[in-house]
Here is the input.
Amino acid sequence: MMEKKLRQEAKALLEQKRVDWIVGFESGSLKFTTTPLITRNVADTERLVINPFITNNLANFLTEIEGRVGIVAKGCESRSIVSLIQDNKVDREDLVILAVPCPGIIDLAKIERLVGKDRDELDDITRDGDKVSVKVDGKKKDFAVADVLFDHCLACELPTPTKYDILLGEPRQPTPDLKVSGQNIAGLKALTSAERWTKWQDEMSRCIRCYACRNVCPACFCERCFVEETEPQWVMPMPQWPDNLIFQVIRNIHVAGRCTDCGECERVCPVNIPLRSLTREMYDIVDELFKFKSGMDKDALPLMVHYEQEEAEEFFK
Ligand code: SF4
Ligand code: SF4
Ligand code: SF4
Here is the structure.
């Protein structure tokens, strides 16, 4: 239903010249994947899809597209869009937001682990309410949806965008389960600081510095990233664990107050570094210290330009 409405609305937006571009999802070349579709061609709108595998955060493309854009937005994407508006990176007047009330996105890696098979060996994956059925070797296995969604979807605070122009389905209420979603982070916190240091040293030793985590992130929009600076040279370009760690520490500080816990950086990491353990922890610290949740209010000042007397260290007062 949502998909049909999306295609109709996107077609009308292009035909009526209300937008120059449509940004959405189409089926990917691999099984159970989608890929971003960015088009100004009316006929392409027939390729738009909405399914349990629309993973990317499409807000990431907004800083690169010129003209008016009709963009498909799940809740987390809508928060990233709002965050970009707050930072004056995107003009709300140039957007038509096609809002998807989002039931959560299926983490294929979790399904592969649960059934012990690679995606190419799976025949079908379907979702019916709170149940996900996986067909493999002609047999059907059922899983609770909470066992197969991305961790960040289990913590989702805004499944339905609040700022939109066209709503594509019935709004969904948030039902965050922070305990299940935060299991990995709780496991890290339970370690001693020495054990945690060793753990991150091991994790960062595997980083190949491909920068996929940065490139996929809508909150990482600097024209020239500090890692590419040579005067001064903040980090060495070759991947070594101390520089890899510094890269992530600085990146996390840069996206503090902009990160919407969309989970994309962790999903795209080719060596499966648990990056959400850093980004979600920073998200929670920002919330705890400043009562600030990224991308919830387009009229709020961005976190880093907002100052209140009681926040100041003694020597500033
Ligand atoms: S975080 Fe929320 S809005 Fe984003 S994909 Fe997950 S459930 Fe959907
Ligand atoms: S995506 Fe993973 S491997 Fe690539 S730079 Fe980021 S942390 Fe390193
Ligand atoms: S840091 Fe990661 S989780 Fe946060 S907005 Fe960027 S891609 Fe999404």
Q: What stands out?
A: The chain has twelve helices and eight strands.
